[in-house]
Design goal:
Strand content: 25-35%
CATH architecture of the largest domain: Beta Barrel
Strand order of the largest sheet: 1-2-3-5-4
CATH topology of the largest domain: OB fold (Dihydrolipoamide Acetyltransferase, E2P)
Helix content: 10-25%
Oligomer: single chain
Radius of gyration: 48 Å
């Protein structure tokens, strides 16, 4: 009995025996709220001593959460001091909750998930944010909402109080370092949105979008969180040199879903599939020889591509430019020029059309593309007109001659018509009884097709002659 009494006395005299068992500073424990006082909260940690949450810690808690605390409620606490100078076990609910938040932040980073933060301030390198009960930081290089490089203070102040979608990129609890990225969150969000769109979209769907970027190879269109690509060949039925020629950034357009690649999360779009195909009614709207207007879409070494206003595009070959004597087209036409042309050939079934400038732009459509054997009127000397059958080749012209279809001395080809039409009368006729189609004659009974003659009874095709009875094809005497 005496021995037991002495053991009890020794325990009373040993202060360490009253210390909470197995409690260390920095440890997180779950506790039950026993009593809520005006300046402190008493909690039970299932230890030899109850813990005390002081007023300084309570003030750091969110007001809404602080009002929600009730007796019997379980809360995480952080061991600040297992035994202070007054032999109290001091704990912190705020730091206990923060430790849980650090664990949640680490899990977010490992899972690459996104969450919301609220902007509370800014400094030289970026903006300060609050996430749950922790303070974090977003570097300016990871911001997409604003550009802090120019007017940093005004831009940052506009963000205070706003929520941003971010991704955790760095967690160091010992250094209390928590770094977020808005840029990475947007990448993750877009990837999720693209996956959702790919699951909902079908090939052949028509959807609305906003042009977000223009590149040499095409245009990017945002379909509501995910971007699709319109290749330059799918922008219009005619040739497009650069997407900026037909689209602008921020422009809202309708697009046709061309293909979906769910393995690579790629969406191929088309704009021209929603535009009328100009070749559908090309045969009804156009014919060979018709005068049309178009814009030059591209200039190459062998000619220029010209698009009509409805999108029909064809080639104006170098040999068909001007009078056909050009050596290169770049000094004659430029991209964007408006030209008046004639359709030289039209093949709707092959989606081909050719243009020319050599037929003349003032003549009626039918005269420019006259068929073989058609009649053409060639002005002759003295204001008289000679009607000739127009042949496509010299060989056909010879056949026409044999048939006596031409009243003049020789048949004319299509090329000859233009030459004769443009050739003015050389001189006046004053001969007596002479027969001359072109030229001057003062002979008596002389016959001359071209040239000047003063011979008596002389015959000359070309040249000047003053001989009597002389015969000369080309001479001067």
């Amino acid at each position: 009995m005496i021995d037991n009494t002495s053991d009890f006395e020794s325990m009373l005299n040993d202060p360490a025996s009253f210390a909470p068992a197995n409690l260390r500073r920095g440890e997180i424990r779950n506790a039950i709220i026993l009593e809520i006082r005006e300046r402190e909260i008493i909690v039970d940690l299932s230890a030899k001593q109850d813990g005390i949450v002081k007023s300084e810690d309570l003030e750091r808690l969110d007001e809404e959460f602080r009002k929600s605390l009730k007796s019997g409620m379980e809360v995480p606490v952080y061991i600040l001091n297992p035994r202070d100078q007054d032999d109290n076990l001091v704990v912190s609910i705020n730091m206990g909750l923060q430790r849980y938040d650090w664990e949640k932040a680490r899990q977010l980073m490992e899972r690459e998930e996104v969450d919301n933060v609220r902007v509370v301030g800014s400094n030289r390198g970026g903006i300060l944010v609050r996430w749950k009960r922790l303070e974090g930081f977003i570097p300016s290089s990871h911001l997409t909402s604003v550009n802090l490089s120019n007017d940093r203070r005004d831009a940052a102040s506009d963000l205070i109080g706003k929520d941003l979608v971010v991704k955790v990129i760095e967690v160091e609890q010992d250094r209390r370092r928590l770094i977020f990225s808005e840029r990475e969150a947007q990448k993750e969000w877009r990837a999720q949105q693209k996956a959702r769109l790919l699951a909902e979209l079908k090939e052949g769907d028509v959807v609305k979008g906003t042009v977000t970027g223009l590149r040499d190879f095409g245009a990017f269109v945002n379909l509501g969180g995910a971007d699709g690509l319109i290749h330059v060949s799918e922008l219009a039925w005619h040739r497009v040199d650069h997407p900026r020629d037909v689209l602008k950034v921020s422009q809202e357009i309708e697009v046709y879903v061309l293909s979906l690649d769910r393995a690579t999360n790629r969406i191929a779009l088309s704009r021209k599939r929603l535009l009328p195909d100009p070749w559908t009614d090309a045969a009804a709207r156009y014919h060979e020889g018709q005068v049309v207007e178009g814009s030059v879409t591209n200039v190459v070494d062998f000619g220029a591509f010209v698009a009509l206003d409805n999108g029909l595009e064809g080639l104006l070959h170098l040999s068909e430019m001007g009078d056909g004597s050009l050596k290169e087209p770049h000094s004659y036409v430029q991209k964007g020029d408006r030209l008046t042309l004639r359709i030289s050939h039209l093949e709707p079934e092959k989606r081909r059309v050719g243009f020319t400038q050599r037929w003349g732009m003032n003549a009626p459509d039918g005269a420019a593309a006259a068929a073989t054997g058609s009649a053409a009127t060639v002005p002759a000397e003295g204001g008289e007109a000679v009607t000739a059958t127009v042949a496509d080749t010299p060989a056909e012209a010879e056949m026409v001659n044999e048939g006596g279809a031409i009243a003049a001395t020789e048949a004319v080809t299509v090329a000859d018509v233009d030459v004769v039409v443009d050739t003015p009368a050389v001189a006046d006729t004053s001969s007596d009884g002479s027969d001359s189609s072109t030229g001057d004659s003062s002979s008596d009974g002389g016959d001359s097709s071209t040239g000047d003659s003063s011979s008596d009874g002389g015959d000359s095709s070309t040249g000047d002659s003053s001989s009597d009875g002389g015969d000369s094809s080309s001479a001067e005497s």
